[in-house]
Design brief:
The complex is a heterodimer of chains A (724) and B (156). Chain A is of the alpha+beta class and 724 residues long. Chain A contains 20 helices and 27 strands. In chain A, 59% of the residues are buried. By secondary structure, chain B is α+β, with helices and mostly antiparallel strands. Chain B has 2 domains: 74 residues, Ubiquitin-like (UB roll) (Roll); 65 residues, DNA polymerase, domain 1, CATH 1.10.150.120. Helix content of chain B is 32%, strand content 13%. Classes of the chains: A alpha+beta (724), B alpha+beta (156). The structure holds FE2/S2 (inorganic) cluster (2 copies).
């Protein structure tokens, strides 16, 4: 077997910490730690995250899901820091789905936000227990002992005891209620560019992903989905397919009406994926399109535009917009659109499921193991706790792997054939049956006074909301969905926010940065347009807007937005001379509690758009790992550039027309901006996430750069749509 | 009649449908899962391996093409992960999710064999068939140029 699978059922047993801890959100409440089952594991469990073997080898568990964002290094490094562990003695393992790890659903750039302090506490409590164990051994006061790089030292003599020698004793002690945490100047790993723990495995092909699970007796499957949401399989003929070599069975999976359920389809189970795929092509199938069979995304976008160009449902109002518009020196309005996006991680949806009589075992690339337990529990009518979920490394996810329809399908197949079944979707199915980023239309109108101050702002938005996936009766964005607009730190005194009718005709999901993509685009590009109307440089104009934003409740947001804006402008040399055909653009946006500003230097030559340089300024509070944080920004620039220029999923007759990377092109190596500079304000403020916040500023900054270069204003994303 | 081929220096016998793409033979018969599936159409490069030292897309190459010849996958690029590109990938901290990286490294290795001292443009051209959705392109290029010795800029 080429795959090592960490099946550590002993850790799946409720640790006892979880029950007490859940009330605290996560569990290091007072209580007695359970020592690891000595017969089953050589390591002693000091808490769910910290296990130490007699020889001192230490395993740190990561409860959050890894998909390339580096969380399985960042969080364990925080544990190790407070633990005073020697990083070279540490192995990081991915925790299975288990509530003892606290919330594991990995999205919304929340891992750092939510888990940083609990992880430090996990390390600090374990460290305190080791120190107490040493003090007891020596018969001295704990104050006379301290932890130092994997040993406890006695202050009064030269004696030391290794963590391995102490772990078993430490595990018998009470978990301290209020662990003492380090001050930032004492950090040894936090804030350092610690390399990812799994690099050597990645570059040698040993790192195993959801697509790489191999089990004895395992079968492989291929699937073709009902192409339209809410449609069904009308009829199919599998006779020819069933007679093909290696085929075990051809199975109709009916639609599972659950937010994370399968769209339904026909699957072939065979000895290899290739045989399954070949046989699938021979299945004659007729689909019933259902209620969304006439969905045409181009026409729908036009419809949303016409909706936002008339008055919609008011969800927020302040000041007196009518009076502001009346008194305006200048008024301006513009409409912005964006299309559906497919996440298209390089690893398509992949999972392996083994449905057995008493339990179910899952190996899946996932962002949400608890979601798998819930969904499979509901689908198989079993106790969700009987579903064992091994969280596999995801080969990219970007929000898509929060939804586990592909796991439920593998469960349906395993149940049908009575064997473990591995299912990897084809790229075509991945492109065509996703949970898409909403297409959108926004209309903004604003008034300026004679000095170029923005006095009024009307903002209408129409887009199928993510909530439609959970509640199909949702017909328009809610007040909450529009918070980022009404609560924007511009703090315009006279404002009205309206929501346009925009029901969904496909499944909508979270896509890296979510609504911030189109809000960030429209608000920034419109700001550039207002600057032009006011005859001002865009940077000066941003500064003027923020200077006018005096609501004390938004002072922090204003300060941090201005901070990154000024930093990016300074580092990029805003205002510098650029050659003919080149231009600089700037944008600022905050999302998921992190603040971003970007300056893009682009060149336009006919149809050709080249980006030469990007300067990003980031305020995410304390930076836990500058190298990984920089990598997230680089990735965000590339994804921002893909969606700014190319990516759009098009629906016709209810189904997606795109299929693979030729008609859903993403950014390639030769187009990557050669120079990406990332600057962090790096304050001591509470650290916030960076998986998503880098994405929204790129497209509007590029739009600004193109305008500076050519005088052409782009209001629609993508800028260079592919005709499919 | 089983056919023979060599995979990572090991002789192998293949008895089956020679039309099977090499990718699935490697991943599902030999359980060499380091080579990845990304598109199945030769569009992404995730499945890149070497056939007699040349980079090929294994998703489009029937296993029969490899009969009597030598296949190298990421698992066999070096015995212990010490190929200069593997080391450079670690130095430059290239991978994010890492899923595309076996294909990237295999493409880069065969490219450097044929052009040991490329400039940045040549690297751009050589690597355009390998998609990285996580966006690690600049670190990939820096790592390749580092190995080529022409440009030792650090990205980390
Ligand atoms: S899987 Fe072969 S090129 Fe994409
Ligand atoms: S590192 Fe994730 S696709 Fe390249």
């Amino acid at each position: 077997m080429s795959v090592h699978i960490v099946t550590r059922r002993d850790f799946l047993k409720s640790s006892g910490l979880a029950a007490g801890g859940l009330t605290l959100g996560i569990g290091f409440g007072a209580g007695t730690a359970l020592a690891g089952d000595a017969s089953a594991a050589s390591e002693t469990e000091l808490n769910a995250f910290v296990h130490i073997a007699p020889n001192g080898d230490t395993v740190l568990y990561c409860g959050r899901c890894e998909m390339g964002q580096g969380i399985s290094t960042a969080l364990p490094a925080a544990v190790a820091d407070e633990l005073e562990a020697d990083w070279s003695r540490v192995t990081v393992l991915q925790g299975d789905g288990d509530e003892k790890y606290g919330p594991q659903g990995t999205g919304g750039s929340k891992s750092i936000n939510v888990m940083f302090t609990p992880m430090r506490e996990a390390g600090a409590t374990a460290q305190a227990m080791l120190v107490t164990a040493a003090a007891n051994r020596w018969g001295v006061a704990t104050e006379r002992c301290y932890a130092d790089n994997h040993v406890v030292r006695n202050r009064d003599d030269e004696r030391t005891l290794g963590y391995g020698e102490l772990a078993a004793d430490a595990a018998k002690l009470d978990i301290p209620e209020t662990p003492k945490l380090k001050t930032p100047d004492q950090f040894r790993y936090i804030g350092q560019p610690i390399p990812r723990h799994d690099m050597a495995d990645v570059v040698t092909g040993r790192r195993t992903y959801g697509a790489d699970t191999r089990l004895p007796g395992m079968k492989y499957a291929a699937i073709r989905h009902v192409p339209v949401m809410g449609g069904s399989v009308k009829s199919f003929d599998a006779a020819e397919a069933k007679a093909m070599p290696g085929v075990v069975d051809v199975i109709h999976i009916p639609r599972f009406e659950n937010a994370y359920g399968s769209l339904g389809g026909i699957a072939v189970v065979a000895d290899t994926t290739w045989q399954a795929k070949n046989a699938l092509e021979k299945v004659q199938v007729e689909f019933e399109p259902g209620p969304h069979g006439s969905y045409d995304s181009k026409a729908y976008k036009a419809e949303l535009v016409s909706r936002v160009e008339q008055s919609c449902e008011k969800v927020h109002e302040r000041g007196n917009l009518a009076a502001a518009f009346e008194a305006a020196e200048t008024r301006h309005g513009a409409t912005y659109t964006g299309g559906h996006l497919s996440h298209s991680p390089m690893e398509p949806m992949a999972s392996t499921v083994w449905v057995r009589e008493d339990d179910v075992e899952v190996w899946a690339s996932t962002q949400d193991p608890a979601g798998i337990q819930r969904t499979l529990g509901a689908y198989l009518e079993r106790d969700p706790k009987s579903v064992i979920v091994h969280v596999m490394m995801a080969g990219g996810a970007f929000g898509r792997k929060f939804k586990c329809d592909y796991v439920q399908e593998a469960a349906a197949l395993s149940k049908a054939v009575g064997a473990p079944v591995h299912l990897t979707w084809s790229r075509e199915e991945d492109t065509r049956t996703g949970y898409y980023h909403s297409l959108s239309a926004q209309r903004i109108e604003a008034s300026l006074d004679a000095d170029g101050n923005v006095t009024g702002w009307l903002h209408r938005a129409a887009f199928p909301a993510i909530r439609t996936t959970f509640d199909p009766s949702v017909e328009r964005p809610s007040e909450g969905d529009l918070d980022a607009v009404s609560g924007h730190p511009y703090g315009i005194a006279n404002m009205q926010v309206e929501s346009g009718l925009s029901p969904a005709h496909t499944r909508i999901g979270w896509y890296r940065a979510v609504y911030a993509i189109f809000y960030g685009y429209a608000i920034n590009v419109f700001t550039h347009e207002l600057a032009e109307k006011a005859n001002k440089d865009p940077l000066d104009f941003y500064r003027q807007i923020y200077a006018n934003s005096t609501n004390p409740e938004q002072a922090e947001q204003v300060k941090r937005s201005l901070g990154v804006l000024n930093l990016a402008a300074e580092k990029a040399g805003w205002g510098r001379e650029v050659p003919e055909g080149h231009g600089l653009g700037i944008a600022v946006h905050h999302s998921f509690e992190s603040y971003l500003a970007m300056v893009v230097h682009a060149e336009v030559d006919g149809e050709d758009i080249k980006v030469h340089r990007v300067d990003c300024a980031v305020d995410c509070g304390l930076v836990l790992n500058p190298d990984q944080a920089t990598a997230q920004m680089e990735g965000a620039v590339m994804m921002g550039m893909s969606l700014a220029l190319y990516t759009e999923v098009t629906f016709r007759d209810g189904a997606v027309v795109n299929s693979n990377f030729h008609d859903y092109p993403v950014l390639r190596a030769q187009e990557a901006p050669p120079e990406i500079n990332v600057y962090f304000t790096n304050t001591d403020a509470r650290p916030t996430g960076l998986g998503e916040p880098g994405v929204p500023t790129f497209a509007p900054a590029l739009s600004g750069a193109i305008f500076a270069a050519t005088g052409v204003r782009h209001r629609d994303l993508p800028i260079k749509p592919m005709t499919v | 009649m089983p056919e023979s081929l060599t995979v990572n220096g090991q002789p192998r016998e293949f008895d089956g449908d020679g039309d099977m793409p090499l990718l699935w033979y490697l991943r599902e018969i030999l359980d060499l899962t380091g080579t990845k599936f990304g598109c199945g159409m030769g569009l992404c490069g995730a499945c890149t391996v070497h056939l007699d030292g040349q980079a090929i897309r294994s998703c489009l190459t029937p296993v029969s093409t490899a009969f009597g010849r030598e296949i190298t996958t990421i698992e066999g690029l070096s015995a212990d992960g010490s190929h200069p590109l593997q080391l450079a990938w670690i130095r430059h901290r290239v991978p994010q999710c890492g899923y595309c990286q076996a294909g990237q490294i295999m493409s880069a290795a065969s490219f450097l064999d044929s052009n040991p001292k490329p400039d940045r443009d040549a690297v751009d051209q050589a690597m355009q068939g390998n998609i990285c959705r996580c966006g690690t392109y600049n670190r990939i290029k820096a790592a390749i140029l580092d190995v080529a010795g022409g440009d030792t800029e650090e990205t980390a």
